[in-house]
Amino acid sequence: MDQNNLVQLTNCAICPNMCRFDCPTTAALKRETVSPSGKARLGVMLEKGMLEPSAELFDHFYQCIGCKACDSWCPFEGLSVSELMNILRAEGAAQGLAPQPVYKIKEDLERWNTLFPQEEMLTLPANDPGPPEVLFFAGCTYRAKRPQAVTAALNIIKSAGIKVNVIEDESCCGFPSGCLGLVQTSATVARKTVQSIMSSGAKILVTSCPECYSAFSKRYPEIGINMGLEVLHFTQYAERLISEGRLSPGKVEGKLVYHDPCVLGRGAGIYDEPRNVLNKIEGLQVCDALYCRDKAHCCGAGQVYEWLQPEAAKEIAAGRAEELQNTEAEAVVTSCPFCEDLLGRAADMAVVDVAEVLWASINTEAGEDFALLKKAQAALKNDARLREQPISVKVDRAMIVLEGKADTWELVVAAGHLVGALPGVYSVVNNLDTPSGAGRVLHFPMVEKEGLTVKDLSDVAIIGGGVVGCAIARELSRYDLKITVLEKESDVSCGTSKANNGMIHPGIFVTPGTLKAQLNVKGNQMYDQAAAELDFPLKRCGLLGVVADEKEMFLLDLIKGVADQNGVPVEILRTREEVLNKEPNVSDNVIGGFFSPTAAMTSPYKVTVAYAENAVQNGVDLHLETTVTGIDSENGQVQQVITDKGVFPARYVINVAGLFADEVAEMAGPAEFTIHPRKGELLLFDKKYHDLFRPCMAEVTLKSDPHTKGGGIMMTIDGNVEFGPTAEEIPDKEDLSTSARGLETVLSRFGGIVQSLKHNSLIAYFAGLRAATYTEDFHIKPSRSVKGLINVAGIQSPGLASAPAIAEYVIDILRNEGLTLTERSDFAPIRKDIVHFKDLSKEARQAQVMKDKRYGKIVCRCEMVTEGEIVEAIHRPVPATTLDAVKRRTRAGMGRCQGGFCTPRVAHILAEELGIPTEEVTKDGTGSWLFKGRIKTGGI
Amino acid sequence: MTYQVAFKSETPVSSWDSCLSELRQAMGSRISTNETERLMVGKDFWPITGTWLMQGKVPSLPDVVVWPESTEEVSQIITIANKYHIPVIPYGEGSGVLGGVVAINGGIVVDMKHMNHILEIDDKSLLLTVESGLNGEILERKLNEKGYTLRHIPQSVKCSTVGGWVACRAAGQFSTKYGKIEDMLVGIEAVLPDGSIYKNTIAPRTATGPRLDQLFLGAEGTLGIVTKAVLRIHPLPESQTLRSFAFASVDDALESVRLIMRDNIRPAVVRIYDEFETEHHFKDIEAAYERVMLVLVMEGIPELVAVENQVAERHCLALGAVDCGVEPVHHWFESRFNVSISSHLIQNNVVCDTIEVAGTWAHISDIYHNTIKAIKEVPGTIIASGHFSHVYPDGACLYMSVAGVAQGDVNEYYEQIWNAAIRTTQENGGTAAHHHGVGLNRARFMPREHGTTGLKLLKELKKAWDPNNVMNPGKIGLGVE
Q1: Residue numbers in B near A18 (CB within 8 A)
Q2: In the predicted model, is pLDDT for residue A705 greater than 60?
Q3: For FRET with A16, which of A108, A260, A509, A651 sits at 20 to 30 Å CA-CA?
Q4: Which chain B residue has the Cα nearest residue A11?
């Protein structure tokens, strides 16, 4: 250290630490050694040879965030503690005595020339030809942590009609490494940056990043670099453009608090320009925190302090966040990527960039995002349960992203629903955590691509073999395309499609104007033709809604209103008599209701199998037990789907992964929606009540959950009375558990609609999960970040009813996205179901037995299923290879005894037909083996 | 080790390892034996130690630093120390100027900075309960945010703690109206040398025998560690009037102020600068040339301030003072925390210090004139000047600034100027210290200050209170034979 600096260091060391009260690291760490004067004294002792250099000693010199708060109280002319620390740091770093993270940053900078790897940073737009008026330097931290601010700043400059260029392979300005004592590294990256800037031909250099600005305007000239152009901070440039009349800010309603970034404020004296720019925006009020301008407190992120001392940095950030929150403002506005990143995580309110606000005032879409952001925050603040939760909100093209924590899973879901219900929301990404860790779990670890077989190129790969995936596959098979369906389970219809009540909803409980309403009504109408072509059971039994409380009779008018808007017929029943005319067996307290004639019942898995079989008949490749673990894209275009069974190149990928659709989408790009599972429990009674009533029935009441139709009682297509489903928000996408208490709830909730059923006739109690988004509408949209990926997500009730319409809707999207659809002449729309022996006439049964005597062997006595049917199911285009698959197709095991009798028989037939040992037969795929091993020899 | 340690422990502790392991168990991660941590709490801002730093010498190197978070933890620490007879030195922010925290026998430094919470503000009674490790400026800011003020603004307010104020009987710049720390202190919580916890009943006054809580005022950690304090606060003053007058002499200024106080007028700030300091601070004020500046700040409700202003002005003008307006007061407000000069002086081999004493109106003029003269007579002295910064109905505090270049050994010179200042003050009827305390540096003046009986009583009290002499041994003159 030179003599002048040593004098300054000694000045500081002998001063009684008059600035210590304002030092953020001292406040956080509470140690004498890190107080400004304490650090200086240790520095003096090092320089005077009183202390040996050591990592422990140098660590103290790194406990400075360069906020310069101490400098503002310092009576010594030209003394800067942070600058003196940088000199000491350089001595330590050169001797290998800096803290470990410093060397990691050094390595990173040497490898990438930036603080972050390329893939974590915004790709800057290509320059238009011609010489630029200005060069915009985005800065690596802005590109990694606040890309929307870079885009906003560029948009603003362009909107002023100015030719602006960027440096395509922008490297670091050298500021962070310079602060860390990495003198050589800083010089190397800075040299590269200087060359790029000087060769740009621009006369003005603009940057939004205070660190970059400080490097260009102060550090470079100090070390003798003259780049020969004017250096401006973005806010200075924006103020100039406004004053020259080249830029006209528009309107943004709201109240923001401006946080002075230390490097911009105390570091560069830029206090007024950001405020002046913001004050030019009509409708915007900008206020200050109690400590502002040169007295502003640091956010804790200065000089990449968070990478060195994450806990202390967060503590400092929490303190500053509190000060900013103690204002009337709705959000924080600042102009530094480090502040925006750390404060954004620490504050309960949004932290936005000056450029974003300015752009929001100029551009309608950005303005709408900003308005939505404020609405979302207001909604969270106005909710008593959520007010105190540390939740931060971001909005990107109407997509709301929630980050932070909530105390319970219920609050996580409540927050998602609250913002999801705001008008104009595109989707909700809910990344909230809970202290217990209840929340999203990643289900699909990446597999090594090396060694996987690469399959032929598909035109369309469909991920997910539920009813919607299979319907899309079948409808697409009308066209001349190579189509692949990837399903992780051993059969189609294994997720939400198998465990629902089988109702084809009429479209009277869906909010008019939603995609759900549109596709529900249309899908319902398409079912007759689908059933006719694909030979699955369908019964237009109608839906009878009943009212038991005089005060709730008004709901019938609301239902009528919705039905009319959706174009669905409904008959309002004003008296008990009118209800009795529709169904005599309603309970005594029913006083009115409605009848919706278009409601129908089907078997959801039979619909799915039918679609799947017809798709396979028409050439679709169905890959069962094939788990998708990744989606590769190149230049924003989807390339291939990685699975545990090989790589499937595809031009288009349709993500119909049900509960896992969000995870699958995130394999390809950033999250665009979040699925939260909603459990529904269902009860099945013995068939002895098969003639108890005819239509589906539901109670019309205000008490039910707003996000489900609340369940009801149905007569399944097979003649079982069914109660449910209930609705319960749960964190785990694989939790299909049921409980005795749940059973009681279901019985008491739905038991009142019809005259009582004997509980000893209850034969099955099970649960399914709805794959709900937080907007509670279907999310059927092309991915915004990856071209060729279509997300078909959030398909909850009435997803079954909507499936045929969804398939058509998706095909329209594919067409819009550029897929050429040429109709095939050989498309075979007709698929026949397997023979159901029980339903045949006596003569037909006779003939069937004559044709194949296995139809004469009854395997399942409850449901009268023959061996012939089971064998047929095993050899269908979509083969039934498990006990459950056989069950879904034949009903073997679905009767009163629930497979108690026929299970070993079916297993034996499966073993024989598939040519495998009986021990390898499974209930529903690998892992669910039925038998442990043989205990004695001999056959069944 | 490539530095000298001025005060080294001479009593080896045989059971140090078990003491340390017990401390570690009690403190978890909030304990350190790192050399740098120990060095930084082995000193305060005793000016001569700045000179020592230039010579490669540090005051002391305590054995361990602990950072308790609660009174109970402080109690655990002291209990352990008492068991092993190891010295305990409480530490706030180390702004003392007399070596009060120097670990002359080594030991455990209890850094109180984690105990920095405001626990209660009783608006009705205007009482604040605060942990003792809180920084003064942060406390004052937090009170101001809520519309209150403690108005204890010593020059060290930005670098000292509540506990430190109590320990050394501090006084702030606004003390003439709002009182010194003893006038503000209504109660304490403290850990005694045996680890037990003492609290007094909080009441505006009590007649229940001697007030034990007041024993901690000025005890400088020798009787225990104050962990909490209950202090009187005030609503922020509604109005403020700034005045300044230039007098022909120090004595005229003192006389005016005496008469103002005699009329029961209580300006918040009263400062009289002698000719030298007037020239140094107010060289731009023409009317003050070769005169003595009096700075007054009156504050409170407007009606009261108006009366105080009127009476004060009358007394000043009656003694021929020239009204110098608000400019000198603004200058004082702006420069009152600037102590940069000592860093410059020390680096240029100048020995410097500030010495505050007090005396009654009957003696204060003699104390001023004779003491300044005595210091100036010490060979090598360049500057000896004074101002009066705290006044009372019965007297005033004289705050002297001294600088000089040692002709021989710096420590010897330093001793000489202090001897000159304090002995002359004592000979002229004054007290050896007004608000900085005793620490190590003033210890030698305590026999004269307390008298033989008084010092003996203090020592016996300490022995009864702390038989193993663990609490900050050797300070406030208790180590003087």
Answers
A1: 158-159, 337, 339
A2: no
A3: A260
A4: B343
Beta partners for A642? A630, A647
Q: Check residue A297 and report its DSSP letter.
A: P
pLDDT at A130: 87
Residue B188 CA to chain centroid, in angstroms? 18
How crowded is residue B460: how many other Cβ atoms within 10 Å of its Cβ?
A: 10
Are residues A91 and A53 in contact, defined by beta-carbon separation less than 8 angstroms?
yes
Rounded to whole angstroms, how far apart are CA atoms A234 and A236?
5
Confidence of residue A440 (pLDDT cuts 50, 70, 90): low
Distance, in Å, from the CA atom of B41 to the CA atom of B32, rounded to the nearest integer, reads 11
User: What is the distance in angstroms between the Cα of A5 and the nearest Cα belonging to chain B?
Assistant: 13
Distances (CA, A) of A920 to A710, A870, A891, A930, A933: 41, 18, 22, 8, 9
CB contact under 8 A, B340 and A76: yes
Peptide bond into A798 cis (omega under 30): yes
- Do residues B193 and B465 make contact, with C-beta atoms less than 8 angstroms apart? yes
Among all residues of chain B, which has the CA nearest to that of A48?
Answer: B56
Q: How far apart are CA B298 and CA A930, in angstroms?
A: 93
| pLDDT classification of A710: cutoffs 50, 70, 90 | low
Side chain identity at A940, as an amino acid letter? I
Instruction: With cut-offs at 50, 70 and 90, classify the pLDDT of residue A749.
Output: confident
For the segment B277-304, the average pLDDT, to the nearest whole number, is 96
Measured distance CA(A507)–CA(B237) in Å, rounded = 70
The answer to whether B457 and B446 have CB atoms below 8 angstroms apart is no
Residue B262, φ and ψ in degrees, nearest 5: -65, -30
**Which tens digits make up the pLDDT trace of A377-392?**
889 988 999 988 888 8
Helices A183-198/A81-94 angle, 10° precision: 110
Residue B209 clears pLDDT 70, i.e. is over it: yes
Look up residue B438 and give its two tokens. 């005793």
Catalytic residue among A233, A259, A417, A505: A505
pLDDT at position A707 over 60 = no
Asked about A908 being catalytic, the answer comes back as: no
First to last CA, chain B: 32
- Report the first-to-last Cα separation within chain A, whole angstroms: 92
A contacts of B53 (beta carbons < 8 Å)? 10, 13-14, 41, 44-45
- Does B93 contact A at CB distance below 8 Å? yes
B322: β partners? B246
Q: A311 in contact with B at a CB cutoff of 8 Å?
A: no
